[in-house]
Amino acid sequence: MPILQIQEATKVYEGKVTKRALNQLSFEVEKGEFIAIMGPSGSGKTTLLNMVSMIDTLTSGEIIFNGMKPQKLNSEELAFFRRRQLGFIFQDFNLLPTLTVEENIILPLTLDEQPIAVMEERLHHLSELLELTSILVKRPNEISGGQAQRTAIARALIHKPMLVLADEPTGNLDSNASREVLELLGKMNQDNNTTILMVTHDPIAASYCDRVIFIKDGEFFNEIYKDDRRQTFFQRILNVLSLLGGHVGDFSSIRLP
Ligand SMILES: Nc1ncnc2c1ncn2[C@@H]1O[C@H](COP(=O)(O)OP(=O)(O)O)[C@@H](O)[C@H]1O
Ligand SMILES: [Mg+2]
């Protein structure tokens, strides 16, 4: 069974002008997939993540997790579901400034009242893996952007969520830090079979994924699967982006690292 089923998802924002941000969008995600969502600015990518994370509700259509419909949960069950099953990574890291790196990372377990021994074991494991051990006592304003995003990744993974949602996670990072973060996400995906849904406008970032889903005007536009070589996958991503319109940027002559 797919871990996530999006069925004819439609979201209409009512206001002075009515905006159809998602229109009959359907796709499925298998457990362990690392998926990029691409599309021009305003095409509904963030809206889609907000619907998947149940921050907001669909106008029509359905989102099903592991065969279960979170829309049917009451608000307390929903809060529990989100805390247990989802991990979030944002462009601006969203770390709490008054907490240390360590406190930020274990926050999902603290909120879930997990035993200290469990917290320490997972904290140790992730901080080794993400090379955060030496900065655990620092606060977010004392660390680099790359370190902040690695901290956010640790926080998103510490409770072993079913699904990680990332909205432009490399949007504020330089190319070295971006590569590090993407390689780490790829490693988490490979080693732990973590399912990741990542919105990105960067074809290089997308080339780390198993599949890229393109949306346009809130509708499914195309999807492509990776092949043996990242360079050719990258070129195929560029080809679809050029069909999609919007800004593609000057990526066309890049050799991937
Ligand atoms: N809360 C909202 N109220 C009204 N319109 C919104 C709201 N959120 C997003 N939109 C509109 O929906 C469309 C899709 O937005 P969004 O999902 O943020 O796109 P993307 O993340 O792909 O740039 C845009 O036209 C945007 O202006
Ligand atoms: Mg967005």
Radius of gyration: 18 Å
CATH top level assignment: Alpha Beta
* Biggest β-sheet strands, sense, barrel: 6 strands, mixed
CATH architecture, please? 3-Layer(aba) Sandwich
Residues in β-strands, percent:
15-25%
Which whole number gives the mean pLDDT? 92
Q: What is the CATH topology?
A: Rossmann fold
Could you name the CATH homologous superfamily?
P-loop containing nucleotide triphosphate hydrolases
**Number of β-strand runs:** 9
- Name the helix and strand elements from N-terminus to C-terminus, one letter apiece: EEEHEHEHHHEHEHEEH
How many helices does DSSP assign?
8
- Total separate domains: 1
* Strands side by side in the biggest sheet: 5-6-7-3-8-9
Q: Uncertain spans, ≥5 residues at pLDDT below 50?
A: none
- The geometry reads as globular
What features would you describe in this structure?
By secondary structure, the protein is α/β, with parallel strands linked by helices. It has a single domain (4-251), classed as 3-Layer(aba) Sandwich (Rossmann fold). The protein is 37% helix and 23% strand. It contains eight helices and nine strands. It has helices at 45-52, 75-85, 101-111, 116-129, 145-157, 175-192, 203-206, 230-244; strands spanning 4-13, 19-29, 34-38, 60-65, 86-90, 163-167, 195-199, 211-216, 219-225. It has a six-stranded mixed beta sheet with strand order 5-6-7-3-8-9, with helices on both faces. Helix 3 packs parallel to helix 5 and helix 5 (145-157) runs parallel beside helix 6. The longest helix has 18 residues, at 175-192. It is globular. The two termini are 36 Å apart. The mean pLDDT is 92. The site of magnesium ion has 2 residues, from helix 1.
